[in-house]
Amino acid sequence: MTPRLLLRELRDYPATVLFCASWLVVFVAMVALQVQGDAGLTSWRVLLTGIGDGRRFGDLTLQDLANGEYWRLITCNFVHYSVIHIGLNLFAFYLLGSLLESWYGPWTLIAIYGTTGVGGNLFSALARRAIGANPLIHSGGGSVVIMGLIGLCATAGWASRSTRDRELTWQMLKALAITGALGLAFPRYIDNWGHAGGAIAGLPIGLAHSRLLAGRGRPRTWGVGMAWGLVLLAGGVAQAFSDRTERDARAVVAARRDLDAHLTTSRVVLAARQWAYRGGDSRGLEALLRSQAAILDREPTRAAYRRLLPLAAEFSRRKPTEPELLAFRRELEAVRDPVRATTQARLETYWERRRRGGRPASAPARVPVARASTSSITRAPR
Question: Considering the domain 3-245 in this protein, what is its CATH number?
Answer without folding.
Answer: 1.20.1540.10
